[in-house]
Amino acid sequence: MQLVFATNNLNKLKEVQAIIPQHIKLLSLKDIACTEDIPETQATIKGNAIQKAEYLKEHYGYDCFADDTGLEVEALNGEPGVYSARYAGPQRNAEDNTNKLLTELKNKANRKAQFKTVIALHLNGELHTFTGICEGSITADKQGDGGFGYDPIFKAEGYDKTFAEISLEEKNKIGHRGKAVAELVDFLKSK
User: Fold this and answer.
1) 3-class DSSP state of 155
2) 130 DSSP 8-state letter
3) Tens digit of each residue's pLDDT (9 = 90 or more) over 115-159
4) Range 2-189 classified under CATH 3.90.950.10
5) Contact between residue 116 and residue 132 where contact means Cβ atoms under 8 Å apart
6) CA 176, 58, 63: angle at the middle one, nearest 5?
7) Which residues participate in catalysis according to the annotation?
């Protein structure tokens, strides 16, 4: 089986490749010469994942899956949410996004947050979605130098280290993307 993962994010690709069974050949956007920005104009994480998968299927014809992920912070009414990648502006800079979030939470006692990933799979003319959620909290400052995005400021519930301080294997076991990909893999095994 061959699937295209609709991402240019090499970190995401690496995370997902570590989970997907070896008999499934995973192609990136680069592998299929997709260089344009795939639209992400929906109001929800699920909507963006579906939009990206449908765009890829319509324009390139491949069976594919796309994900969208957001960090939802309780004290900020779910922000940055669907705008997580561009929270601090259109430049999509992880450092700027993290700094803005820490500033927004500076005087807030409630640090509860959750990462949410939705994967939309286009396979054999059908659309399926899978969701992974990881509850946790936002730290007061950055900790660790691994991971990417908001990983240096997010601690999963029951853990004393941030995502940036744990191994990729550990993050895939407990993290939002790992949970959504596990649902995807279970579905693919049943096909």
Assistant:
1) strand
2) E
3) 999 999 999 999 999 999 999 999 999 999 998 999 999 999 999
4) yes
5) yes
6) 55
7) 68
